[in-house]
Amino acid sequence: MDHEMLKTKAELIAIQYMVANLYASMFGERFGVEAAPAAKQFADGLREHIRTWTIPGLDAAVSDHMTGEMQEAIEFQLSLILDLVNGKIDAYKAMQQAQKQPKH
Prior knowledge:
The protein is mostly helical. The protein is 83% helix and 0% strand. Helix 1 packs across helix 2 (35-50), helix 1 (3-31) packs across helix 3 and helix 2 runs antiparallel to helix 3.
């Protein structure tokens, strides 16, 4: 892989991570330690929706290929979101536990 392609791929992954972190933060701020079910519901709904995608104006085979690639990218994004949500839940639980500890 040439340098420019590697740089472009790294930038794309960084953007995917930042978008996933924004979604995870949204779920975490809104639902706190109960964020996992809401994030899963969102992910499941989006997965169901993207299975219906087609790209008008393209040959059916090309449309299927492109939507498959898009679905794969979205699946990656959703897995990042769910992983980050779980990390935020762990952090919220640790904060709650620390607040319950008697202060010396």
